[in-house]
DNA sequence: ATCGCTGGGTACCGATCGGTACGCAGGGGA
DNA sequence: TCCCCTGCGTACCGATCGGTACCCAGCGAT
């Protein structure tokens, strides 16, 4: 969740923070530029001096909200060194905690891709690029495990995470978090024994 | 996917079909009323004579696109009578086929709930009601199985299905369909043996 | 004191949004 | 033949959208 910082004026920084919050809470299309400006205490031109367009702002939002796979990987390796299965469970448990937090409204990237169905749109392209990195994270975590088809397992875990993220919004965060950890354990165990 | 039909004028019926297709392909917010009218070959007032508002049209869309759990259940029971595990696998396989179809762009209900974050909005409420029925379908399919906690298993399967639906759009439909069936088998097996 | 430059807000733009007032064409009953 | 009623499209409404032309305040340097 590390944000790719770039130099911005103080007013531009406030715009950035407001926009991220509103994009996530209300959706990108529903968050109007005028309201972002108002809530940031700036005029609209300030937004366009720091960002090329609303789409540009949305693009920055998507790229910033993406997970930072490398950082997450390092952190998991630091917490559970030399124990790949524990590292994997650690990451899954972290994700389960994240989706349980109040105010969680699904993965920002998935939501953005729903709002931008056109696959040629830059925002959509950014989502796919970032999500590919996400899948790589799982692949790296799974590779050290003694399983026959690590890539399939990684894909399955990714699928579980996305499913938990979605069901959290529609059903229950507690159930989703618990089911995510439980299901991941079962799938991993199943892969380990054959 | 059975559509709750109601009496509509022929022109209204064309509007309905066009709207469903556009809502799904482009998203509800992105599909303008004027464009729906034009593509249906009618004027805008025709839309408002058949539907109370755009939100009303969206509400009808959501309710129509919901699965019909009872029908699906009957069909699975007919195909694999007296074999509950096979019934369950049948439903999962049907879903895997569905998400593999070209033009699949995720679950219409999930997409709608992303577009309507406000939980008090009628469209959002309808999504949650319909999705609860969906979960009930899995619960009914799982209950006959000799497992200790059927509800947990049902929730997990629901989560897997939602995950497959999401990853289909971002990664690969083929991989998602295969991973869904594989993961479901593994989770079910895991539940059956303990 | 005066200048120019930087960084900000006011007020406005055309386009498009969802929604509607109104008028017209056509068919059945008298 | 006249009438009314139903069902539809044209043309328009105010609101809001993303985006911009313009102006002004505050600053350091001369």
From TrEMBL, chains A, B:
Please report the name of this protein according to its UniProt entry.
TetR/AcrR family transcriptional regulator
What InterPro entries does the annotation carry? Homeodomain-like_sf, HTH_TetR, Tet_transcr_reg_TetR-rel_C_sf, TetR_C
Q: Which UniProt keywords apply?
A: DNA-binding, Transcription, Transcription regulation
Domain HTH tetR-type: start-end pairs: 9-69
* Ranges that cross the membrane: none
Entry-linked PANTHER family: HTH-TYPE TRANSCRIPTIONAL REGULATOR LMRA (PTHR47506:SF3), TRANSCRIPTIONAL REGULATORY PROTEIN (PTHR47506)
UniProt xrefs under Pfam families:
TetR_C_13 (PF16925), TetR_N (PF00440)
Instruction: Specify the DNA-binding region ranges.
Output: 32-51
PROSITE patterns, per database record? HTH_TETR_2
- Origin species, per record, is Streptomyces iconiensis
